[in-house]
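It is worth pausing here to work through a concrete case rather than discussing structure prediction in the abstract. The textbook approach is simple: state the sequence, then state the predicted structure, then interpret. We follow exactly that order.
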Amino acid sequence: MTTFVRLVELPVDEKDSALRAAVRGDGTVFKLDPSVFAQVPGSPFAYWVSADLRKLFAELPRFENQERFAYSGTSTGDDDRFTRTWWEVASHGSRWRPYTKGGLRSPYYADIPALVDWKSDGIPIEISYAGGRVRKKHFGREALTWPLRGVRFSAQAVPAGCIFGTAGKVALSQKADLPWLLALFNSQAFDKFIAFFAGKVGGVQYEVGLIQNIPVPDVTHATRNKIANLGRRAWSIKRLLDTGSESSHSFALPALLQVRGNDLGVSSIAWFEYVRKIEGELSCAQSEIDARCFELYGLNEADRRAISEGLDSGASDSESEDHAGDDSDETEFAADETSLAAELVSWTVGVAFGRFDVSLATGARPMPSEPEPFDPLPVCSPGILASADGLPLARPPAGYPLTFPENGVLVDDPGHAQDLLTAVRVVFDLVFGVEADRWWNDVAARLDPKGHDLRAWLTNSFFEHHLKRYSKSRRKAPILWQLGTSSGRYSVWLYAHRLTRDSFFQLQNEVVGPKLAHEERQLTSLIENAGGNPSASERKAIAAQEAFVEELRTMLDEVKRVAPLWNPNLDDGVVLTMAPLWRLVPQHKSWQKELKSKWDELAAGKYDWAHVAMHLWPERAVPNCATDRSLAIAHGLEDIFWVEVAAGKWKARTTPLRSVEELVCERSSPAVKAALKSLLDAPTTSGNGRVRGGRRATSAAATVGGSR
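Step two, the predicted structure:
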């Protein structure tokens, strides 16, 4: 028998006197045989808990049995190559599959923004990283997942069809058991057993072995159903808060359109009250789940306190979760009136481009029914304008109340037929009707407090807002791109999913070229009207117009450089697809720097798996396919360079079915090569948009009529 004295909770200056008191018999001591520690897997040094509590580990079945177990999936080894966000790629289906990657604490529900490239059943990942050792047996099953580490354990439902990552470990069981296990895994009781088993509170790394050894109580069918219903309710409540996040699979409408109010202020208050109500309902559901799970384990109040008393606090909340996964995929919602206004305008921009369905806001289309927690994720969120088969539409359906640019181009240009602000105002008018003016003025005042000018906010701030909203799982993946002049006086907005290889010829001939010609005429008019002796104000106006024309010439020059080689494929990812456009985003310095870095790496051969690399540098990419089977699969050349000699065993062909030279010639274009040379040789622009060196265009007249 050994005597233990607890001093860990006491201040340092009190420990000495407390120890002396314990020795005299006046303090609290614990006497037990240390061999009883072995009743708990890992033998945690928890001398202060009751014998009944330790026996639970011996008497109750562990989570792991013949029907249920925890499971660690695969790492890609190269997320730049093999992972995307769900809104980023050009196609879904069998190639791109949802991918669990951890995240931060989010009980019951969390969206899964990441996709993994599962082309050829994941073989390229096996070849390039795992050496053929990817464990695929259980991929696609419904499951539970959790963050890699944290201060309190939480689990979320994993829909059918997902691939599991090493940071997004999962628990598998019969599908009928998952709903009640979802509730159990998020209970205080389960978390306290984890802390007891791990020997500390916070900073726990939730590995497979830890979860598999936690005891799970036996339950009757009726009890299981009651707890499952509570877990289902908690999942539904959490998901409701995500229906206002436009980058979520659950998105339906922005927050301000989910509540009733005749202006921004009233609707904001209504939304915050709604959030408090929902959070209160979630708290009530959690309390009932906790109470029922404590009863299932037979834990009294003393046992509940004893589990966590004296355990080391491994880390603070922020310390333990900062690196819990790839990023915070916790449900997001706007926290103030300004954020709510920004989310509303962001949605209207999406509607103006034809991405989101305005019919949900007008009531012409009913809100879709809620899915079940383990249903497969949809290709499109409920808020996206989609066909009956759930795929996004490229043109307005019959009877739709709005038009939108089928080529994915809007401009920041007052008076232009495709002006972005004008298109946004049309959406406001349709949604708010007679109250549109009030809403418009409220939103403009909130987003641009000085000038009350929504155009100014769209020009200067919207892209940064959009970039933040569409950056998850360590990927930056904006799908609305702002190209423009360095001063911001002129911008072209592009919707990534509508772009084709002809898009930049259209920009050259139909958008930027005509704009330059118009502004050159304006400059000529200013000079002629000023005569030979212009006033100070006239000289100022002429200088400003000259600078603007120079910026437009610089922009048009770059559009002309890009046009012959532009061949977008979003399966490469947004950053690589945009990389050739880095000179066209001078307003956003950090984003421009990132695109420039990717462009330099592309040119250096770092991303030869990408379609853009094969398009621009086939003389480098094709030979690499002969030595790297994963690259051959990526470019559809596997059968030409490789042969299967036995089941699952491949080797390079001694003589390819087609020569490297023939394949390179087939994929090479003199026009593309000339454009690539021009793009690589082009001088870097200075901060004011002027080019350091290089021949300047003097007129737009010769460029407007250019063609491919």
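Step three, interpretation. The longest strand covers residues 96-100. The chain has 28 helices and 21 strands.
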